[in-house]
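Thread: "does anyone have the structure for this chain?"

Original post by V.I.:
We have the sequence but no experimental structure in hand. Need at least a predicted one for the grant figures.
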Amino acid sequence: MSAAATLAIRTIKTWDLGVRLFHWLLVASIALAFLSSEEDSILSTWHEPAGWVAAVLIAFRLVWGVVGGEHARFANLIRPSRLKGHVTGLFAGRVHASLGHNPLGGIAVIGLLILAAATMFTGAAGDEDIHEAIAWTLLAMIALHVGAVIAMSFLTRDNLIGAMITGRKKTTHFPHARDATPPGRLAVPLAMLAVAGSGYVAMRIDPNAFAPGVRTEAAESSELEEGGERAHGEDEY
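Reply from O.Q.:
Generated one for you, tokens below.
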């Protein structure tokens, strides 16, 4: 029996709090944006705020990808040198667990961030056709990503969803692994600055960016005023 096999199974820190909060808040904001996309939806007033919240979260992730914990950093997401071996292994039926994102998972994260950002940008720009096309592409990619996570969790017997909730993984596949390097001292201040700055920009573009219902009230008020003006004009006539 090897020395590695005799090591006790432990749990180690893998995903930092910042990347976990980002992940689940982005899931919630995108879900809300899709559920509120129809004008007759009872959640319709939340569509634009959900999109702006997602935009702020993306700004946070861009900063966190540089200053965040070890497995949150873009340098550990984009690993071209390992991609060929990973894909070849998958086709050959060799599936290996990974402490952070595997090479394909890292590419998927980058792709989802780009699609989410494009969805928010085209929505803010008012280009409905392109916005809708990109949004549905994003939804398809999310479904593919979720399917891949479930499949990898099953094949490697590694609870990937649970790890993104608790931030910890068992060392079953990584007997000598240690806790991931945590975010640096300036990580939180820089991330807060990114959130505040992106929120400020959002409100400069749209003063009601984070105020659900304000647009509806303003539109109804405008319609009432226009109706009153038309009625007044008809009376004069």
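V.I.: this helps a lot. The beta strands are 11-13, 168-170.
O.Q.: and The chain has a mean pLDDT of 87.
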